[in-house]
């Protein structure tokens, strides 16, 4: 086993590499309200509380989905399954927010778009927005949720992965 690299002064590039070694699921955060509908790909999310049921999602401060969530007061978490890498790409792209849901099979639950075929989903009422450096942390109370079928789409070392595969997908 190679010795660990000792770094005394953290740098953004190394920070990304360090946390890129933490495998995460991939989700699309959706919302719809007075300012329109849209969504973004995210992997900075987690369950926060069981009493009440709370979820946490992080938005880059410049994310075009953040004002939609703020105006709507709610958001959806759509956990992607393998085979949905193309959706992760669409929602991570610079396509105008109003066009991201075009051609994507979805329905509305509790006022938020839920992507058909998602591995799991939750519709949340926005409870709080908290500043966190170059991101904004959103805390939402889960109002309804459901499960789909399949295997999770994973993000590791800057690539999508499917369980059981040794190489990443691009």
Concise overview:
This protein has helices spanning 12-20, 65-72, 85-92, 97-100; strands at 24-25, 27-33, 36-42, 45-50, 53-60, 74-79, 106-109, 112-115, 120-132, 135-147, 154-156, 159-161. It is an alpha+beta fold. It is globular.
Segments where pLDDT lies below 50 for 5+ residues? none
> In CATH, what is the homologous superfamily?
Electron Transport, Fmn-binding Protein, Chain A
State the strand order across the main sheet. 3-2-6-9-10-5-4
> What does the main sheet amount to?
7 strands, antiparallel
The number of helical segments is 4
Terminal Cα span: 28 Å
**Helix- and strand-based class?**
alpha+beta
Structural domain tally: 1
CATH architecture: Roll
Apparent shape: globular
CATH topology: Pnp Oxidase, Chain A
- The chain-level mean pLDDT equals 91
Topology pattern, helix = H, strand = E: HEEEEEHEHHEEEEEE
Number of DSSP-assigned strands: 12
Strand content: 35-45%
What does it look like?
- By secondary structure, this protein is an alpha+beta fold.
- It has a single domain, classed as Pnp Oxidase, Chain A (Roll), CATH 2.30.110.
- Helices cover 17% and strands 45% of the residues.
- The strands form three sheets. A seven-stranded antiparallel sheet has the order 3-2-6-9-10-5-4. A three-stranded antiparallel sheet has the order 1-11-12, with no helix packed on it.
- A hairpin with a 2-residue loop joins strand 7 and strand 8.
- The longest helix is centred in the N-terminal third of the chain and has 9 residues.
- The two termini are 28 Å apart.
């Amino acid at each position: 086993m190679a010795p660990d690299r000792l770094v005394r002064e953290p740098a953004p590039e190394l920070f990304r590499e360090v946390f890129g070694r933490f495998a995460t699921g991939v989700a699309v955060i959706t919302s719809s309200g007075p300012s329109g509908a849209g969504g973004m790909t995210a992997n900075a999310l987690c369950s926060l509380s069981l009493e009440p049921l709370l979820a946490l999602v992080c938005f880059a401060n410049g994310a075009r989905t953040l004002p939609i969530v703020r105006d709507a007061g709610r958001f959806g978490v759509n956990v992607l399954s393998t085979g949905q890498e193309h959706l992760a790409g669409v929602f991570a792209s610079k396509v105008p927010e109003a066009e991201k849901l075009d051609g994507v099979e979805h329905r509305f639950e509790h006022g938020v778009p839920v992507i058909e075929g998602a591995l799991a989903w939750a519709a949340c009422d926005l409870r709080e927005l908290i500043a966190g450096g170059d991101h904004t942390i959103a805390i939402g109370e889960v109002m309804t949720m459901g499960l789909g079928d399949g295997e999770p789409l994973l993000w590791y070392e800057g690539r999508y992965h499917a369980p059981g595969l040794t190489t990443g997908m691009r």
